[in-house]
Amino acid sequence: MSAAQVLDALGDPTRRAIVEQLSRGPCSVSALAEPLGITVTAVGQHLRVLEGSGVVASEKLGRTRTCRLEPAGLAAAERWIGNCRLLWESRLDRLGDLLD
Amino acid sequence: MSAAQVLDALGDPTRRAIVEQLSRGPCSVSALAEPLGITVTAVGQHLRVLEGSGVVASEKLGRTRTCRLEPAGLAAAERWIGNCRLLWESRLDRLGDLLD
DNA sequence: GTAATAGTGAAGTGATTGCTTGACTATTCC
DNA sequence: GGAATAGTCAAGCAATCACTTCACTATTAC
């Protein structure tokens, strides 16, 4: 669940659409595929990436797999981006202090 | 400077390394290329993507181009991820309330 | 002026990737 | 039992992508 894996996973528009859909609630594979206009096979491939990065979790009950968001995965990416931004902004702050 | 463009840009390990380097301070193109072990041409191509997404800004003085981080671009991606996560977490909270 | 430095542009290449089809394996419903 | 449903696996394909080399244009240094 490294930030690198998560950002790799979020670097694709279809996977972002899946994440957006899952943020509104758990979902089956075919329910994810339908609004995207792609096959369930394609969704399965994206899910493998999303699960591998820790952004999504799923479990199969009977013949349907239910997918849900894994907030900790998203949080890892948020921290990476936030850290870069804050590092830079603190530099800006120090520069501001120097100018005062 | 849409979140989609920023996440597309951050979906590549080399571009993330460039962002990490720039978070420690402004940098020339060749100074970015050296630790990465790639050509300045390759860095220039990545910079075009990063600038197009609003994560990086640069200006050319004389013959050297100085690149710096643009915090607003990173913030846009943070907001997108945070929004997905919070939407889902608030659902979890409501579920918790129901169970009480 | 000449030489070295910093970067840009065009073209090519090999690898990756997002997606499809077709065949197959459970599971549920009648 | 048989038919429909939900998903998985293996191959294959077209497009994108990250990177290179080579040629070229400023700018700076001697």
TrEMBL record, chains A, B:
The lineage of its organism: Bacteria, Pseudomonadati, Pseudomonadota, Alphaproteobacteria, Sphingomonadales. Residues 1-100 form the HTH arsR-type domain. This is Metalloregulator ArsR/SmtB family transcription factor. InterPro entries: ArsR-like_HTH, HTH_ArsR_DNA-bd_dom, WH-like_DNA-bd_sf, WH_DNA-bd_sf. PANTHER family: SLL0088 PROTEIN, TRANSCRIPTIONAL REGULATORY PROTEIN.
